[in-house]
Structures are given as structure tokens and as C-alpha cells.
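Page 42, continued from yesterday. The earlier attempt failed because a stray header line got pasted into the input along with the sequence. Redoing it now with the clean sequence only.
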Amino acid sequence: AFEVKVDSPSSLTIRVYEKNIVGYVHYLGKNVYFDKDGIVLAKTKELWDGIPCIEGLEVKKVQLYKALPVSKANKKAFGNLLDMTMTLKKCDLAPDKIVCSGSDLYLFFGNKCVNVGHTNLEERIMQISPILEKLGDQGGTLYLENFNTDNNTITFEKDVIPYLGT
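This time it went through. C-alpha cells are written below.
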């Protein structure tokens, strides 16, 4: 996006706003990159570093600079995913991939899977960094889907990664 302002008859200011890409999906042999608002910014065969792959979303008829067209069944999960991206950035977390399964979201960091569910996402994501640090090289699944202010139980199942059909 950009903004143009005429300062005087011989001068103008152009302000360019960079769109941050938050994820990509595979679609018809290409990687489709989108921003925090779900707008498609690029379709390419290239893989860009530091951008998580999003799996489990059903998309159709992708067009540049339009909203990523996700199926009705995926609307809630995709909305949660877009809301979650700012918290991930704020917590300096960069998952390798994110899987949408039903309305639940699963974040993958190397050999670890984190089930964050579909509610209280900000609160749950804020728990991830210190826990991953304590786990070190141990692989497995961290279950945060029931964590909230009333239930602060968090479990970790060592060496178990859920199969999510992707």
C-alpha cells in the first residue's frame, strides 16, 4: 500500500507501507503467500525463508491482491490463524508450519508440535517460548488447547506427534 501527498506544485511525498507476509499455502504447484489480513501478495514456485507453511486449508481460485478464498469449513480456523499471527510476531515465535484441523491450530517447531486449540490463543501462545526452552531437544506434543486462567494445566507427550492428515 502507498500514500501520495502533494507538498507543493514541484514536490510530493510518496509513503510506501510494507505488507508483512505471515504464511503460505500450496496451490496448483505454487506457493501462495498472504498477509495478516489474508490478502494474497505473491504466487511463486520459490520458497521464502522464515514464512510458515499453512496446511489443512482448502482454497479455490486464488487471485493476487484478493482475499485468500478458503472453504466455509476453514473460515473459523483461518480467522483464528490470522488473529494469531500478531501474537506470534510479538512473542518472536516462528513456527516451521501451522496445521489447521477443524477449528484447532497446531504449531510445529522442529520436532515439537503445539496444540493451541481455537480459543484464548494470545494467552496460550505467550506460554510457548518458555516451555520450548525448558524442553530443549526433546520432541513431542505440547497440549495447550485447554489452558486458560481457570485451568493452567499443560501436558507434554514425549516422542508423540499427532497425525493430522497432511
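Notes: The first helix runs from residue 75 to 90.
Reminder to self: strip header lines before submitting.
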